[in-house]
Amino acid sequence: MIGRQREKEILLERYAGNDAEFIAIYGRRRVGKTYLVDETFKDKITFRHAGLSPAEWQGKSFMAAQLDHFYQSLIRCGATPERRPKDWLEAFFYLEMWLQSVATEERQVIFLDELPWMDTPKSGFLTGLEAFWNGWACHRHNVMLIVCGSASSWILDRLINNHGGLYGRVTYQIKLEPFSLCECEAFLESRQVRYSRYDIVQSYMLLGGIPYYLGYLKKELSLAQNIDELFFSRHAVLSDEYDRLFASVFHNAPAMKSIVELLYTRNAGYTRKEICEKLGIESGGILTQELSALIASDFIIRYVPFGYSKREEHYKLTDPFCLFYLHYVRQHTGLEENFWADNQNTPPVVSWRGFAFENVCFNHIPQIKRALGISGVHSAESAWSKREDDPEGAQIDLLIDRDDHVINACEIKFYSEEFTVDKAYYMKLMHRENLLRKYIPRKSYIHQTLITTYGLVRNEYWSIYTHVITLDDLFAE
Fold this sequence. Notes:
- By secondary structure, the chain is α/β, with parallel strands linked by helices.
- It folds into 4 domains: 5-175, Rossmann fold (3-Layer(aba) Sandwich), CATH 3.40.50; 181-234 and 334-358, no CATH class; 242-324, Winged helix-like DNA-binding domain superfamily/Winged helix DNA-binding domain (Arc Repressor Mutant, subunit A, Orthogonal Bundle), CATH 1.10.10; 368-474, Trna Endonuclease, Chain: A, domain 1.
- Helix content is 43%, strand content 16%.
- The protein has 21 helices and 13 strands.
- A 5-stranded parallel beta sheet has the order 2-3-4-1-5, sandwiched between helices.
- The mean pLDDT is 93.
């Protein structure tokens, strides 16, 4: 198993304990939650069940379908319930009776995958789960209940932060993150897909470190050929993934997509007030829930831009897959099956890579801080721009505002060779630094920092940069 070593160790440590365990695993869809559990426990799972996806359901009673599916899972594992359960209380009672009938001193691992899908409207699902855990499972020292869900906000709101009968019942929670660049490289190597780090970064710009998507890359094809096959060919595997992604994770998919598609239109994102104004919606509890759900599912982030107050926090789209889809795939006519191979070196795509690389860097802040030697220093990260009356103004791709009174002003450049600073660019950097000085405390000072692919040509202007971070630094564990 590539990556996930810490998560695997935690699960095995909990498995080896002598207490009842209720473990919740959540994270973005396709990130590998089910795979983690399967690979960690293999043949140790006593009972497993996965909820039915609402995205594919066409019938009238989704609750009845979920209960019938649960009944079938009971049959498959060897249970003999007297009839199909009429509700979730009865369904979990059947599970309880069967587990008790086969109980030994060995751990009993119960794996309920895509738990949020089972909680259909007015189904009483949480009541049934609560009765199962509080009335029986939590008193059995050998029970280990593992639940997963791609609807991360549901896991957080209904289980981890539950204020009812399941309050404080989750014994451990794991948020599974997308692969880092280092893990993407290891994953691709394990599948004999051999790309340079330059191309692995480009794959991250499109697929975002999601193992499921990376698994489609074929070793006999170049990256450009793979991208055409996945997104632009006649039967592209991922051409409809965007719609499926939202339909399977959010019950109000159109509203969630409207927020994401608005945030896509501005690299720095929007404030809550701006979101309401542009979408024509109220700033109430529903919007709060929607924004929180998108954050929990790793689609967007919430941050305060440098120089702004906390009341002006912004929401920014950071999911690489969504960004790529909205920029290229959504508007694709389907007539150019070799679109990416034919256009990969055109100015619009080269320009897009520059912005996409900025997003890669925002998703690898720990690696950047490690390269700077400041892993233990608290900091806040954001982009920064200021124009005022100056026609040139200033825009800095990434500011790392550190508690040790240093501000790293990071310029991010995705180049196919070493970057060169000429006199004009040197003067531009000095102009930005002088303008930034007006907005920082007197006790702070600025370190000009370059984040690029292959480093910096050493000429008479190169020393403007205090630090130079390369791809090798971003690929650190």
